[in-house]
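Exercise: predict the fold of this chain.
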Amino acid sequence: MVAWRSAFDPLSEGTSRGCRSGLARRMLRGGGEQGHTLAAIEAKYGPRVDGTEPTEVFVAEADGEPVGLIQRYRIRDYPDWERAVQIAAVPMDAVGIDYLLGDPALIGRGLGGQIIREFVQATWRQLPDASAIAVSVQQANRQSWRALEKAGFRRAWEGLLESDDPSDEGPSYIYLRDHPDRAS
């Protein structure tokens, strides 16, 4: 395992232009986020940066270099998603996270699990009223769900989600991590 120090800087208009384009270029070199173009990545993350969408997006840094994005949102802020994940008994006050590493060469080195683990701790500090963190992941994405398991998540459900989001197509898992002060 590689030793990394992670930092999570909010993706803001002032800091995002170079970072967003640099990460997006790395994502595109590695096949992209589902093969998106730079313009599509900007269109997806731009409203989050502008604050017109309730999702918070952070740049994950390792040793001072941007290596990926991680985002969090209150599941209740997205009613369609809230309905979709209720199949796994996700608590109403849960937070959802999504993440990606921008450079495929970093996958499989333990960085993903470490970033997730540290981001979870930051989330508990910053959103102490959240009772759990939920993540949906494709069953075929073994590296991603293994990173979640290494970060202390448990598999809560498996099957097909009812979602209009193309990234949710196919068999999925939902992973949960309960707030340590509220775990039963």
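Check your answer against the key: The chain has a mean pLDDT of 79.
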